[in-house]
Amino acid sequence: MNHAKKAEIFNKDEAKVNWHDKALWYVREKRDNSAHKVQGWEYLRELGSAIKANVLSNLDEYLIQFETNAQKNGIKVHWASNAEEHNNIINSILEKHNAKKVVKSKSMLTEECHLNPFLEKKGIEVIDTDLGERIVQLAKEPPSHIVLPAIHKKKEEVDVLFQEHLGTKPSQGNPEYLVSEARKHLRNKFLNADVAITGVNFAPADTGGVVVCTNEGNADMGVHLAKVHIACMGIEKIIPKEKHLGVFLRLLARSATGQPITTYSSHFNKPDEGKEMHIVIVDNGRTEQLGREDFRASLHCIRCGACMNTCPIYRRSGGHSYDYAIPGPIGSILSPGKDLKKHSSLPFASTLCGSCSNVCPVKINIHEQLYKWRQVIVKEQKQPIVKKSVLKIAGVVLSKPKLYGFAGKSARFVLKHAPRFMIYNKLNAWGKARDLPEVKNENFDEWYKKRNKNG
Amino acid sequence: MNGTKKEIKMGREAILQSIKKNKPEALPMPIIDESAFYEDIDLLNAFKSNIALVGGTIKEIDVAQIDNELKTIYPKANHIVSATSKSTLGTIPFSKETDPHLFKDIDLAIVEGEIGVSENGAVWVSNTNSLVRALPFITNDLVIILNKSKICIHMLHAYDLIKDRDRDFGVFISGPSKTADIEQCLVVGAHGAMSLTVLLI
To answer: Alpha-carbon distance B77 to B142, whole Å?
Structure first.
């Protein structure tokens, strides 16, 4: 099912769509307020972008440096070319420790690799410990946003889910009560876990450690109580120096939620005494994307979600309509590189308004890449016959000014005088659920000339 | 096990080869001009207002008054772990070998912070300060004692100040744990500490 069809499903509940739209726009506004308070914000974004560009141009060297430093500190480093290797490596670590209970903090990479179902099939309990992720896990759904995984759920729905799975009392969706119950439920999981899995926000090559950012403290509760910590990272999480965290930590939370920094920015450099720490470095299509000049910069992404919060399409179609681990504008430029056919509708899920590029903390030219993917897709994928013929006719009309003038006149005449059913039907997507603007007698060209004469 | 090892090695070589083949021409590492971020502000006041912004409480206090102050703020705290010599309120003896699971019911943890960051109200706490890594997270309420001469302007400066540390574990803590995962309603007290008090000395 393509994006438009899935978006249609999401749009069946109009009140919910309106809420979703406003809630995310509010987060975007918080981002603006927070960013405007920082002296040199635009320069900070430029630095973020330039550091990431430097990383990509020297990624192999940085990865080797990172590995060497991590090993010096007693961390075990693993490399996985794809999702399957990643999952097998994690399973072998769990087997070695006879681990049956795993707590996991947010990691979009493990979503991308479908780690949970893989481990669950082997009889391992995997608990997502970020509250939003736990909610969608209980609902047997994927996250719909990378920072706000359960943004598509109303509090009453969470109430029902918790009643069913955690045995809570009906509370009409009281957030304080539901969070306190989740705290108890997950605390028990933290205390009994064998292994903690986390994602990685940043991995400085010069120290060989990893930095994980959370607001809830779930990554730390997991890691410091379990005897083994496994941190999973895509190759692009590398930054050259620890000092560069001073750039990225200033950008990340402000862009994500408008907070000046996340509650916890945890620096894991060495395993605790008597414990083990593993880092799994994953490619899974990233080196291929690195080779695509037009799309390379998509690997700058620091997963703040700002492009989703600002996107008029995302806000009104919901994260699930993208059907990819990373939804929204950034997901729409990452996913075609993974599977062009499967994700071919995503670069079209955009108005190309450019708002995503404007808020991106590492200045990825997202809307330009969306446009470039469209060109690739139109060349490589079979297009619907209606679209093809309409575009062909449009090409002819637009190349001939006289014909264009005539076509415009006729269209205005028809729109004014034709019966309603001829204009508002299945063929006219622009007339769905709304009326077209009032039709004027003249086109812009004619209006402009007349205006000049009069003025 | 041999099979696994071989596979891991293949992953590494394959990834590095693929990067070599696909990476662009070398691009320079930018030099950071920190003067672009300079602001003539009162660091202490900015730090205080940012702690409040992120949901924490902050108080300036004399070292001798710490215990009295904490007794007033947390009258019901019984199980207290103090990782600092600046407070004698600790009721649970512990060392760095203590199993963190034993802390599951503690009411209050008192630790020292090393530096504060005025732009975001974050305080750097390393496991030299907390001895047990889980302590600042597993406690119900957290108190961080910080010397007010240790407040810096922003994160770039903060990383200069901690660059020579012994790197094992350390964390910037900005406020109490929180979540907005249910309908974007901010709820303080997720999995980490339910409240944070910073005592400036």
So the answer is: 11
